[in-house]
Structures are given as C-alpha cells and as structure tokens.
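Below is a filled-in request sheet from our internal design queue. Each sheet records the structural input a requester submitted and the sequence that came back. We keep these sheets so that new team members can see what a complete request looks like end to end.

REQUESTER: design group, bay 2
PRIORITY: normal
MODE: inverse folding
CHAIN LENGTH: 388
BACKBONE (tokenized):
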C-alpha cells in the first residue's frame, strides 16, 4: 500500500506540469504568469494540505535529486557557441559576469548578512543572473538551502524581472541609447519578419512532436546519452574529497553537457532542451511542496528581496558603464543584460522592442555562455561570501 501511495505521489508531481503547460498554451493570461510560477503556487498548496501522506517526504527527497542531474545536460546539448562576432560576445559576457559578481558581493555586505543562508542565496542568484532557472535549481541541489527560502528567491525574481522589463520598455532602451549617443534603430520588413518568427517559435508547444515515432526515437537517444553523462559524473564525484560529492557531481554534469554540445550527433537532438525543461518543472512543483510558510521569516524575506533587487539593478548599471568604457553599443549591452537576468527565451521579445535583428545573435550567445558558466560562478561566489 505504501509503494502504491508513493507511486501515485510521483505520478502527481510528474503529470501536473503537463496540465499546467496545456493551460498556459490555452490561456494567454496564464502564459504571461509562466508555468514555473504556477507550479510553485500549486506545490505550496499541496505541501501545506493537512492530510498529505507520510510518503510525500520520501518523494520530496528523491525527485529533485533525480530531476536536476537529468535536466542540466539535456538543456546544454543544444547550446551553440558561435565564432561570429566573437570579440563583441566576449566583451559583453565578461562585462556581465563582472557586473553580477560585484553587485552580489556588495549586496551581500549591505543586506546579505541579515539573511539566513545569505551566502548560499548570493551563490544561487549569481548563477541565476548569469544563467537562469536551470542554474538556480542546480545550485539549490548543491547548497540544499531551506525550501521556503528557495521558493521566495523565485517568487521575488518574478517581481524583480517584471520591474526590470517595465523599466526597459518604458524608458530604459531609449535612455541607454541616448547615453551611448546612438539613435533609435530602424527595421526592415524582412528583419521584422525574422524577429516575429523567433518570438512565435519560442511560444510553440515543443512537446507535441515527442509523441510521434521520430520524437520517441529521439527521446530514447537523449535519455541514453544523459544517463551515461550522469553515471560518469557520479563515478568522478566519488573520487572527490568527503563532503564535495554534490559540488563535483553537478559541475561534472555541466562540463560534460557543454562538451557534448560540440558533438554534432548530440547537438542535433533538438528536443533535449524541452525535455530538460520539463524536469525543471517537476523540480519546481516538488521543491515548492516542501515549503512550510508557517515558518516563514518575514523580516529576513524583506532583506532577501532587497538583496536580489540590489543585485539586478546594480549589475545592470555596472554592465552599462563597463560596456560604455569598452565601446560596446547600447543594444548589445541591453540584450546581453536581458539574457543574463531573464535567460535567452526573452531575447527575441526584447529584440522586437528594440527593432534590432542584429542583437539576436549577441543576446542568445550571452545567454548560452551564462547557462554554461552559471553553476561554476555560483559555487565560487559562495566560497567568496563565506570569507566576508
């Protein structure tokens, strides 16, 4: 009976994301909120119900530890590291990473000391604001921070990202162009069409093809490669010093995921990112179900919000200053900042707002590098903050 209950709970957590994705595709208002935020809400409700069985704790402990190691390499296989405009991309990436690092360290000194697990939060938001949700989830698996704290990080990120976009779309893009001495861009019909195609592509349902014969074959290949990556990473991590297994394990998975992105047979498995993202959805609802909001530290939460807000807007300011000094154009600065803070899927939308097709390549490249290095930077940042 206990086994049946456990299986039913696993099925619950694994199938709810599919329903949420379907609802988001059907109702634009839900799509604007986003699947992850909706899954956090559902997870919190499930986790705080008074009649949940004791097997829930077993599933909550195991499922995130399965989902993240599978998600990381899958989401990295399709990353393409282009040599085009390499000098520009190197400049914006280095500027962005340095800006986030300075902002997080400074924010920690001002706000982070007043936050429980402040150093770990600093590491997670470093990975989040150079990569994305993937990196935040991976770093959560490494640091094992309090579930309530992790849910707050993602909840606050939604609020801060919204304010960030309001600033960009209302006056930010024009302001940065003016400060950089650049005029508003014009756009041809062909460029406009290409950007619109990129936006439409980002909104398509990527899971429908998985239920076709070719999709099933590709899924089997993706899982086969990923299981091999996880197994090799686990064996290498077992050789690491005691207490370092999870750090070595996650970083090894990241390294192999990036390495395999250069292998054509793996890079062309175009459904790998979407399958990996589904595991992030499973992780999201499971980790949210562990949050007990009766234990919520509201005072610490206020400092946490201030810490994250400071990190985003100070890193943007520094990134703008650094890019001005190293002679990067305003649009490349803005689009790389969007890629770092909000992740690559938001890049086409902002390119459309800027009316600049050329910024697509720079933004996507910056975001891809952010995915690749975010886990390493997060681990390094925690070590640095613990010394302060």
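RETURNED SEQUENCE:
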């Amino acid at each position: 009976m206990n086994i049946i209950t456990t299986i039913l709970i696993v099925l619950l957590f694994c199938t709810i994301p599919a329903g949420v994705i379907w609802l988001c595709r059907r109702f634009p208002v839900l799509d604007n909120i986003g699947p992850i935020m909706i899954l956090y809400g559902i997870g919190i409700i499930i986790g705080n119900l008074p009649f949940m069985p004791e097997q829930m704790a077993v599933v909550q402990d195991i499922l995130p530890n399965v989902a993240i190691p599978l998600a990381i390499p899958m989401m990295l296989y399709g990353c393409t590291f282009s040599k085009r405009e390499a000098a520009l991309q190197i400049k914006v990436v280095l500027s962005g990473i340095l800006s986030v690092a300075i902002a997080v360290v400074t924010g920690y000194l001002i706000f982070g000391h007043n936050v429980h697990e402040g150093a770990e939060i600093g590491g997670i938001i470093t990975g989040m604001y150079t990569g994305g949700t993937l990196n935040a989830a991976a770093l959560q698996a490494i640091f094992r921070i309090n579930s309530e704290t992790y849910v707050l990080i993602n909840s606050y990120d939604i609020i801060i990202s919204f304010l960030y976009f309001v600033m960009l779309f209302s006056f930010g893009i024009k302001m940065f162009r003016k400060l950089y001495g650049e005029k508003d861009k014009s756009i041809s019909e062909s460029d406009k069409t290409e950007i619109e195609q990129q936006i439409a592509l980002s909104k398509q349902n990527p899971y429908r093809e998985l239920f076709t014969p070719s999709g099933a074959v590709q899924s089997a290949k993706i899982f086969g490669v990923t299981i091999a990556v996880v197994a090799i990473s686990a064996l290498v991590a077992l050789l690491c010093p005691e207490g370092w297994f999870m750090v070595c394990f996650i970083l090894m998975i990241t390294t192999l995921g990036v390495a395999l992105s250069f292998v054509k047979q793996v890079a062309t498995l175009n459904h790998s990112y979407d399958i990996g993202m589904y595991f992030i959805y499973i992780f999201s609802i499971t980790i949210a179900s562990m949050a007990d909001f009766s234990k919520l530290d509201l005072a610490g939460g206020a400092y946490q919000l201030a810490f994250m807000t400071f990190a985003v807007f100070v890193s943007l300011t520094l990134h703008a200053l650094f890019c001005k000094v190293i002679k990067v154009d305003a649009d490349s600065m803005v689009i790389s900042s969007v890629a770092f803070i909000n992740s690559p899927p938001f890049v086409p939308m902002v390119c459309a707002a800027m009316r600049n097709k050329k910024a697509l390549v720079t933004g996507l490249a910056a975001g891809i590098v952010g995915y690749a290095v975010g886990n390493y930077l997060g681990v390094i940042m925690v070590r640095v903050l613990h010394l302060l």
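SHEET NOTES:
- The chain has a mean pLDDT of 84.
- The two ends are 51 Å apart (CA to CA).
FILED BY: M.R.
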